[in-house]
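Hi everyone,

Forwarding the result from last night's run.
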Amino acid sequence: AVVLRSSARYAVLSHVRCQLIDGFPDALTLFDVAVVPATHQWEASERHGAYLRQGDAPMLAVNVVSADTLEEDTIRTPNILADSAVSEYVLFDPSADVLRPTFQGFV
């Protein structure tokens, strides 16, 4: 995990894993970048990124989409997020290969 930025109010983390819905292990979700409140507890792992404590949700989650992750990022993850406390979810396709428009946000 890389802390991209932090302050007294929030941290910006890369390679974030979190179980957003308590009691549902299938609701493990991966984000390329996440903004989390400073009050959230997380653990860093060089091999697996950052793990948020079960039930803690990022304020903002971002995934970079590719053909390999399209279904996960556009179908499975939004379905999980609908039942979570994630405020905003953003998808970006830097190569413009699989996502139109190439930048999409969900609230």
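The chain has one helix and eight strands.

Cheers,
N.
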